[in-house]
Amino acid sequence: MTETSKVIHVRNVGQEISEADLLQLLQPFGEVTKIVILRAKNQSLLQMCDVPSAIRAMEYYSNVQPSIRRRNVYMQFSSHQELTTVDQGSQGRNDQDLEPNRVLLVTIHHMLYPITVDVLHQVFSPHGFVEKIVTFQKSAGFQALIQYQSRSAAVMASNTLHGRNIYDGCCQLDIQYSNLSELQVNYNNERSRDFTNPSLPSEQRGRSAQSGYGEGSGIYALHTGGSRAVAFAQMSNAAAIAAAFDGGLPAGISGTNDRCTIIVSNLNTDKIDEDKLFNLFSMYGNIVRIKFLHNKPDHALIEMEDGFQAELAVHFLKGALLFGKRLEVNFSKHSNITPAPDAHEYGGSNLNRFNRNAAKNYRHCCAPTKMLHISTLPQEITEDDLVSHLEEHGAIVNTKIFEVNGKKQALVLFENEEQATGALVCEHASEIDGYTIRISFSQLQNI
User: Fold this and answer.
1) Contact 79, 5 (CB under 8 A)
2) Which among 255, 273, 252 is positioned nearest to 264, based on CA atoms?
3) How far apart are CA 406 and CA 392, in angstroms?
4) 3-state DSSP assignment of residue 386
5) Counting beta carbons within 10 angstroms of the beta carbon of residue 251, is it exposed (0 to 12), middle (13 to 18) or buried (19 or more)?
6) How many angstroms separate the CA atoms of 369 and 317, rounded?
């Protein structure tokens, strides 16, 4: 276990986040006596008045994803027991303040393109002989441990590459010294490599996941199984994400989240079900499965295809109004939903929106709006037909039917976002004259 401290280390602190924002995050748990913001590293150190206050904060945020100005931040106990004047200086290198050694801990921020062992070797080998590389996923994002033959080569690489991007505008390198002196690599594959021992097997026979680094004694965890699937899903999605956002993600989206499962609460139990939740959350990514909690009927778990899609859903749906309730949407502590009779499966559904035109769907992701876009409509549909199909969900202010490439589409403007959201969750994938219609939020303000 990581040693407790009254100093909390916060990552992914964007330039828009102020001291007041950070204080608001932790003051409910006790007095914050000191604060340091390391702007160059997008990090911060906050010292609580005592260790119990820090423990209360960390226990709370272990179950609730902390976010500031719609940006997810990541918290851990600092290796500092107390902040000193030196710690608060602008030259502070990192939270660990570990002595330079030959093993580097590298975190990749804003990862729009897949990063493999081969890519990392190409980036780091010009600075010295790289002996071993191990990659893994953590809450801070995609990380790697890189072992050089000499300490001087690691120091040169850290000084040269820290803060640089692997690709233009993305995949930024955040480099710290590890407290490990030697990496153990059991397999040579896309996740790990021992360049001094090319005869290692690619996989242990009978197992699909390699053993790795546990959390104890400051050693970083190598996640297996589900994280591997997440990594592959993110890799296959990378091109679509890059095409959609042209190298720059929406404000408040880090692109580093690796948690695929969301917990949504404060649901209206009289009106909601799995299919309606699917209709709403599939706006932001493909859904694997959904499960309502038996002991908390207004809570549901939603497993998305990958962490980026889950981050979009949490970002855009947190606080949305649906059926008279304001939704609480956060990342779950569960990595996935175990298949079971009470868990509804959606992985193979052709209604998942991101099976086709993923880049287009990413580009249209937004918070709920008053305007709905409806496609795959019957050729003979009229505005009266459309109003008749949707008016039970709220007051319709205006409608417009138009044609794109010979196919009928429509815009429908409701009086408010809640009414439009209700119409979307109830009527997406419903039928009009034998046509299964598709409904999404539109960012247009007027018809």
Assistant:
1) yes
2) 273
3) 29
4) helix
5) exposed
6) 11
> Which two structure tokens, joined as six digits, stand for 389?
């199909």
Structure tokens at 401: 């039917």
Give the C-alpha separation, 10 to 23, whole Å. 12
- In angstroms, how far is CA 208 from the centroid of its own chain? 24
pLDDT of residue 17: 80
- Rounded Cα distance between 256 and 32, Å, is 28
Residue 444: name the closest of 397, 408, 406 by CA.
397
Smallest CA-to-CA distance from 319 within 27, 70, 50, 59 is with 70
Inter-residue contact 224 to 230 (CB < 8 Å) = no
DSSP codes of every residue in 46-107:
EEESSHHHHHHHHHHHTTS--EETTEE-EEEE-S-SS--TTTTSTT---SS-PPP-SEEEEE
Q: Evaluate whether 11 touches 43 at the Cβ level (below 8 Å).
A: yes
CA–CA separation, 388 and 432 (whole Å): 11
Q: Is 93 helix (H, G, I), strand (E, B) or coil?
A: coil
Quote the distance between the C-alpha of residue 21 and its chain's center: 21
Average pLDDT by stretches of 10, the chain with 447 residues: 81 80 84 82 87 89 81 85 55 49 88 83 91 82 90 87 79 85 87 90 50 29 32 50 69 83 96 96 96 94 93 94 95 90 90 86 91 95 95 95 90 97 96 94 88
Phi, psi of 204 (to 5 degrees): -75, 130
Degrees (nearest 5) of the Cα angle 290, 295, 298? 60
Single-letter amino acid code for the residue at 9: H
Q: What are phi and psi of 106, to 5 degrees?
A: -115, 125
**Which of 428, 251, 393 is closest to 321 using CA atoms?**
393
Instruction: Round the CA-based radius of gyration of the chain to a whole number and report it.
Output: 24
12 CB-side CA count, 13 A: 26
Are 374 and 438 in contact by the 8 Å Cβ rule? The answer is yes
